[in-house]
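Researcher: Re-running this chain for the archive, since the previous output was lost when a drive failed. Same request as before.
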Amino acid sequence: MTAIADLNVALSDRYRLEREVGRGGMATVFLAHDLRVAIKVLRPELGAILGGDRFLREIHLTARLRHPHILPVYDSGDAGGVLFYVTPLVEGGSLRDRLRREGRLPPAEAVRIAREVADALACAHGQGVIHRGIKPDNILLESGHATVADFGIARALSAAGADQVTQAGFVLGTPDYMSPEQALGQEIDARTDIYALGAVLYEMLAGEPPRNALLTST
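Model: Regenerated structure tokens:
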């Protein structure tokens, strides 16, 4: 990943990065100096695949989503090939972080989180937006309540095409949460998000996703 100093040069007319606060397979998240926002910077090789125009088109589309349980997008851009977008800083961590600490959640709390995510998905689906990548990692928790992140990246990856993305070493979706049709590379609709949410709910209750549970059952 490009050093913070190099990124600060690229983003100097809009933001100054203070420190790294998270890292995933597709992007690195930075805290902006003097602002309570997170700046998510895509890995350069992923940015090259997506292209600035496609990335910004998909981010702008998802930025129009307004719902209490959808993480809003404040800004986005292509700074000399550095693709980024800006969201509120959520300091409660992700559902993945909590599952790592606790293993499983009380049933009432798991159902409440699933209901909040379902409400967010209903809003997005009503506007023709499919997430394509629901998993505990992009369900953020603030004061115990769920916020769904990363609608735009999933859409941009899908638009780029599975072959091009996978040949570069990136994976569209996470196997434990992918619907059968998504795993087979078939056309998907809103039901693939519902399937993924069901797998997340299962994991919140059982302590492991359904695919792992099947592999370890005897």
